Amino acid sequence: MEEVERLLVVDDEGPILHALQRTFEAAGYQVTACADPAEALERLREKPFQVLSADYMMPGMTGAEFLAQAKALQPETIRILLTAAHDFSAAVDAVNNGEIFRILAKPWNRVELLGTVRQAFDTYALRERNRQLTAIVQSQNAELAALNKGLEALVEERTTNLLDGMVAVLDYRDTETQWHSQRVSRFTKRLAQQLGINDEHILRTIEMGALLHDIGKIGVRDAVLLKPGPLDTDEWVEMREHPRLGWALLQRIEFLRDASVIVLQHQERFDGKGYPAALKGEQIVLGARLFAVADTYDAITSDRPYRKAQAHDAAVTEMRRVAGTQLDPQGVAAFCALPESEWQAIRQDVEKISLLEQEWGWTPPKRVFEQIHEVAGFSRSPKPAFTERARSPKPAFTARAGTTLSNTLSQARRSVKGGRGPRPVARAAAEGASLPAPPRRRLRRRARV
Ligand SMILES: [Fe+2]
Q1: Could you tell me the distance, in angstroms and rounded to a whole number, from the CA of residue 161 to the centre of ligand 1?
Q2: What angle do CA 93, 94, 99 make, to 5 degrees?
Q3: Dist. CA 441 → ligand 1 center (Å)
Q4: Residue 294 has what DSSP assignment?
Q5: Does domain 6-136 have CATH number 3.40.50.2300?
Q6: Class of domain 174-338 (CATH, top level)
C-alpha cells in the first residue's frame, strides 16, 4: 500500500500560506497549513509528517527556534526553509540548529519549489527504507550472534565430552584408576574456591586444566607408558615430553588455551625441581600448583595395584611434610582448612558417575549426570568406605520416592539431544535384568610419573 505523503506548511502570511497549500495539494500531497508556529508544533505532536516547509520570519517564534523544536518532535521529518533574500544570513542559525534539507528564496519559482519538495519526500522514503533495512540487519545480527553463541556452547560441550572420554581411556590405560582425573579436577577446583576464586571462567579453566593434565600421554608409546619396570634415560626423556605434548594438543582448541598452561606446568614442583621448565614458586601458574596438591592427595588416598590407599590423615601428614618443596604451602594450607568430609563428598560424587557407567555401559556426559543426580537423588545402600569400593559388590541405585531408575534413564536419554540414549544394557538394568560383568583390568606395577 502506498503511503500518504503528508506535508506541513507554516507561514504567518495568509495569502502566501494559501498559495503554498494550493500548489502542494495540486501536486498530490496531503497538506496541513498553519499560520501559527505554535499550532504547527501541536500538529507535529499529533501525527507524523514526512516533509515540513516553514517560513523564517514569523511572530512569537523565529524560524530557527521553530525548526529546532520541530526537529526535537520529529527528527526524521525533512525540513525546508522558505525565506526572503534579505533574511538569508539570519537563516544560518536555522540551518545549523534545525538541520535543514534546503533553503528556498521568496518569491519562489514554482518548478524549483515542487522539485525541492519532491526530492524531500524521496529522501525521506530512502532514509526510511534505510532505517528499516538497518533494523532488519541488526535483528538478524542479534539472531546470528545468539546462534553462534549456541553453536559455540554446543562445540564446547561436545569437545569436552570427547575429551572426557579420552581422559577416561588414558586414566584406565595409565593409572588403573579410571576416575583419577575426574577426582583431581574437582579437588583442584574446590581448592581454588577455598582460596577465594569465584570467577566462573577461571574456575572452569582450572577444572579443565586439571582434568586434562595427562592428555599428552596419548603421544607416549605404550612400551614406555606401560613399562612394568623402571624407565631408562631415553624413556624418561620421552615420558617427560607429555606436558608439552598435552599443551600442544590443546592449542588447537580455542576455549582450552588458558587451561593448556596448567597442562604444560602440571609436573613442575614448587622448589623448581620439576619439569619440563624447572619453574619455581609463583612462576608456576596457580592452577598447576593447586593441581599438584590435589594430585598428591588423590595418589595417596587411592588404591594402586602395588599398594593400598592410605587414610586422609596420612595424606595430610605427607602433604604438610612436602609443603614448600614439592607443593605450594598456600595450596596445602587451603586443603587442610577444609574438613575430610568435604573431600570424601567430592570423591563419592565421582563414584556415582562410575556407578552409572557400570549400569549403562557408557559414561554419561557431565550435563546428563548432573540432571540425573538432581532428578533421582540416587544413593548407595549400604554405603561402603570409599577406599573399599573396588572390592564391594556392585551397589544398586535407590531413587527418590516416586522416581524410578527407568524413568530417570528415559529422561536422560531424552536429554542427550541428537545423541544416543542408554544402550540396551542400561535398559536391561532398568528393568532388573542382570548385567554382564565389567571387563577386568590388568594389574601392573610401575613407576608413577
Ligand atoms: Fe603427568
Answers
A1: 21
A2: 115
A3: 21
A4: H
A5: yes
A6: mainly alpha
Q: Hey, do 6-136 and 174-338 end up sharing a CATH topology, with the first three levels equal?
A: no
For residue 214, how far is its CA from the centre of ligand 1 (angstroms)? 5
The answer to whether 306 touches 345, Cβ cutoff 8 Å, is no
Closest by CA position to 351, among listed 386, 299, 376, 382: 386
Full-model pTM: 0.58
How far is the CA of 266 from the CAs of 163, 213, 285, 322, in angstroms? 18, 6, 9, 16
- 10 Å CB burial of residue 252 (0-12, 13-18, 19+) is exposed
Confidence of residue 416 (pLDDT cuts 50, 70, 90): very low
Enumerate the domain spans of the chain.
Answer: 6-136, 174-338, 348-449
pLDDT, tens digit, 9 for 90 and up, residues 104-130? 888 889 999 999 999 999 999 999 999
CA 142 to chain centre: 15
Please state, rounded to an integer, the average pLDDT across all residues of the chain.
80
Question: What is the Å distance from ligand 1's center to 311 Cα?
Answer: 23
Q: What is the DSSP code string of 381-413?
A: SS---GGGGGGSPPPPPBPPTT--HHHHHHHHH
Cβ-defined contacts of 396-404 (< 8 Å, 24+):
397/355, 397/359, 400/376, 403/375, 403/376, 403/377, 404/430
Q: What is the pLDDT, as a whole number, of residue 446? A: 44
For ligand 1, a single-atom ion, the residues with CB < 5 A are 214
Torsion of CA 61, 64, 67, 68, to 10 degrees: -100
**Is the model more confident about 355 or about 151?**
151
